[in-house]
Amino acid sequence: MVQATPFLLVLFLALGAHGLSVKKCSLTGRWVNDLGSNMTIMTVNANGDFAGSYHTAVSATSNEIKLSPLKGTLQKSPNQKGQPTFGFTVNWSFSDSITVFTGQCFVDEDGKEVLRTMWLLRSHVESIKSDWKATR
């Protein structure tokens, strides 16, 4: 029985370690926010760079909303522990504006991946005197 104890301990540690692993949050895929906007992120390369598309459900312009390209980067630091920070830019195809997003990818208590972001939208203005109203 003494010889079986180390084996059982190793087996327990191997089986138990699987349950202790932290689920990693992946940006790749289709994301939908609470307003109905959606984005698709293609594969993230080894440097953390990615591209995709964004279709907003809301707009301040009367132009027809169109699918718009996005480009971004993911922080690859080992300190991110599977819940990385990231940033991306959307170049709106239907207006003279561009939006930058920054955020973090989380895995919530239920194992669901969630993105938390902040954004700045910069609209084109005709003169420097109107600069004050160009960023939201």
TrEMBL record:
Location of the protein in the cell: Secreted
Provide the Gene Ontology terms for cellular component.
Answer: extracellular region
The record ties this protein, via InterPro entries, to:
Avidin (IPR005469), Avidin-like_sf (IPR036896), Avidin/str (IPR005468), Avidin/Streptavidin-rel (IPR051764)
Q: Does the keyword Oxidoreductase apply?
A: no
| Chief site of localization | secreted
* Record keyword Secreted present: yes
What's one Pfam family the UniProt record gives for this protein?
Avidin
Enumerate the UniProt keywords alphabetically: Biotin, Disulfide bond, Glycoprotein, Secreted, Signal
User: Which GO terms fall under molecular function for this chain's record?
Assistant: biotin binding
Query: Which region is the signal sequence?
Result: 1-19
Q: List the disulfide bonds.
A: 25-105
Q: Which family does it belong to?
A: Belongs to the avidin/streptavidin family.
Question: What job does this protein perform?
Answer: Forms a strong non-covalent specific complex with biotin.
Q: Which PANTHER family match?
A: AVID PROTEIN-RELATED (PTHR34399:SF3), AVIDIN-RELATED (PTHR34399)
Assembly and partners? Homotetramer.
The protein's name = Avidin
Q: Which gene underlies this protein?
A: Avd_1
